Amino acid sequence: MTRTLSRSSSQSPMTSQKEGPACPVGNPAGDSEKYHGARRGPEDEPQLPGQVSRSLGLSTDDPFQPRLEEPREHTATMASLERSRDTGQEAGSQQRGLEAAGDGKPEAELQRVNAQLQLQVEALDRELQSSLAAARELESMLAQQAQRHREEEARLQQEAAQSCSRQVEKQDRQIQELQDSKAFLSDTLEEMDALVSALRQQLSQREEETAALRAAQAQELAELEVQHGARLAEREKRQQELAEQLSQAMHDAEQEAATAAGQRQEARAAAKALEEAERRLRAQEAERRERLAGAEAQELRHQQLLSRCQRLQEKLSVSEGKLEETEAQVAALQSQLSEGQREGPSSSPPRGPEKETAQRLRQAKLQAEGLRQKLEQALAEGRELEREREALLESAVSQGQSLVELQAEGLRQKLEQALAEGRELEREREALLESAVSQGQSLAAARLEAQDLQKELAAQQERNASLQAALEQAEGALMDKEEEARGLQEELEGQSAKLRDALAENVAVASRLAEAAAGFASKKAQLEARGTEERAGHERAVAELRRQLVEYEEQRRAEREEKQQLQAVLQAASEERDVLAKQVQSTAAALESRAREAAQLRDELEELGARSQREDTRLQEALVRQKEESDGQIVALRHQVQTLELEKQRAADSLEQARGQLAAVLAEKGALEETLARAAVELERVGGGDRTEAGDEEPLGLARGRGAVEEKAAGGGGPQMDKQVLAGEPPEDLGAAAMLEKASPEQKPRKSVEEMVKHLTTHLEKAMGEAQQKEQLVKAKEEEAKHLVEQLGRARQDREQFRLALETAQREAKEREKEHRGQLAEQQELVREVKGRLLELLREKDALWQKTEGIDCRAPSVVPQDLSLCARCSQDFGFLSRRYQCRLCQGTVCQACSVESGRKERCCLLCWQKRNFKGT
Q1: pLDDT averaged over the chain?
Q2: Would the pTM of this model clear 0.85, i.e. be above it?
Q3: Does domain 856-920 correspond to CATH entry 3.10.580.10?
Q4: Residue ranges matching CATH 3.30.40.10 in the chain
Q5: With helix as H, strand as E and coil as C, how does 802-821 read?
Q6: What is the DSSP string of 699-766?
Q7: Cβ atoms of residues 406 and 493 within 8 Å
Q8: Could you give the CA distance from residue 28 to residue 445 in angstroms, rounded to a whole number?
Q9: Whose CA is closest to 762, among 733, 798, 788?
């Protein structure tokens, strides 16, 4: 019996944690009610192992919480432990009932009860061993779960740290990219500002140049208008004088016609009277005819000389035209060379164009010298012909009669006057050439304004039209006068012939009458007197007619001089118009170059706009990506913060539970001390019986008291405390339990309570340390989130600044592009107007030339010598200049020298003029 009780007492410390506390002996009912009341606390609100997560407010599916569900074996072992605890409680109650019955019970009943107790203890021992095995398995499983939980937590922390570091690096890279893009945008904006400033400077310089050119041009045009007004006044005076002379000549011609009619009647009467004398004078007529044939031969030779002189004059005019063209080319080349020399230090042009211009200048000079030599040769030939003509005239004067001498003298005078007029015209031409060269040089340095040119050219056109009308009227009057003069000259020649015949007949009649009879003496005298009178009258008439002829010739010469002057003025006007046309071409070329520059600038602006748009899109995409990444990072950080808050809440809950358990343990410690005191008192009271029984019962009571204390301590913590003790006690706790078994009965509960308190304090410190670490981690995460939010705000501000800067740059670029487009449209419109006006001027010029002089355009060359030059103006074809092929002569011409002749067809200006003005 003693061995059984000692064995049960030695095994009771292992099962005391699952059994309820024993009631005190003195007051079994009250103690049992107190015990049952203490037990009903954890039984009314049981905490199963699967409900731990629910008590903490967490779900079992939380990835950061280890799964604490236990298998069915654990539930079975817990049920068996409960049953063993119930049986132990029943045995304890029976033992307490037997002890309360006193010493009156028989020994047999006590042995029976001990046997039953031993059987129950053996059953409890077996159940306790199975429950210990299950507890060890549960402990190992809980240790594995705790290890997995720690590994999972370490892995999650490492992943969170890595993700945070990657996000920080990515944000650093994005910030660096944004800074680089910002620097690039600032550089591009600076370049655009520099380009805009340069363009504005160029535009201001060009505006200043155009203003200066306009001022100089306005001054020169004012001077030209003054000169032109003076010339027009002189022309009007000359026209008035010419009209007066024409009216006077008409009056004189009418008077002469009346006198000629009277003379004709008289001549007819004399012819009728002298018909008989004609037969007599036929012999003399033959001689006269011979003399007249000689005179006609001389006149024919004189006409040949005149035609030769005219041809020489035409050659001279052609050579003068060529000389003018070469001088114009030389002037143009000199101007180009001077411009190239002026532009040389600034633009440093290539040596090739300078050599070509110098070579062209030398060729033009050589051509001019050759033309001058030809002109001098033509003048020498003219002088030789003049000398020959003078010699012929002298011989004609020595051989001819008085009429021939008079005609020769008149012709000589006419020729001398013509030569003098030619010299004067040559001097005037040279003066006009010099003035034209000076005007061309002065006008070559200026830019012609389109509107002023149009007004001036319109005024010139009206003046030319008036001059042309006056010239046509003068030419018509001159032709009429020439026809009248020819008629008068023919009549005079007829009368002179008749007079010569009459004189010859009179001479024959006189010779015959001298041989006749004396009866005819009186008649002869009368006839001689009449003949002398008629001869004198005829001579007077011939002299008068000659005088009138000389006057008519002088008038005709004056009219020719006026005509030549008008032609010279018209030629000067056409030359001025050519110069103006050249200036218009140069202006058009300058405008085209400006248009090309504007197109290049527009292309550069478009490229900069496209680049800025690409940068804008790239920045927007980068900002969108950064925003998405930052939003994802913020979401991840929020999730991490939530998980950390959950872990913090969990740690706080566990801390609160640990504190509650500590308070319960302290309360149970006090209760255990009280029960120990009461047990000591009861042992002293029961010590009057058998010492062996007392010795046997004392360990049993102490064991029961210790089991009750341990059960109460375990019941105060509940299943959660059991799990913490089982999960947290290492094998050293078993050694401590063995030490407790070897210790005294009074020190065992105290030591177990102290060990439990130490264990709970260590768990509390660990939980508090983990809570502090988690709080620090949460604070670090919050600071990192704040830093990321600040970076995101700064990035958004930078993005807004970049967007505003980009919008302003795009707006300025669009405004500048609109301004450039407007200027380009104005320049193109001006070029079109100038070209149209130039074509109209060229047409009017050709029409005037063809109407005034009947000049036909030369046939265009079939193929030009050099395909890189224009076939008309010899202008070089550049990279940007367009070239056209004439559909009539197949020549390559520029745009200024070509005209639209149909749908998608062009021809050169000469072919177009020849085709359109051929019938006029």
Answers
A1: 69
A2: no
A3: no
A4: 856-920
A5: HHHHHHHHHHHHHHHHHHHH
A6: HHHHHHHHHHHHHHHHHHHHHHHHHHHHHH--HHHHHHHHHHHHS-TTHHHHHHHHHHHHHHHHHHHH
A7: no
A8: 139
A9: 733
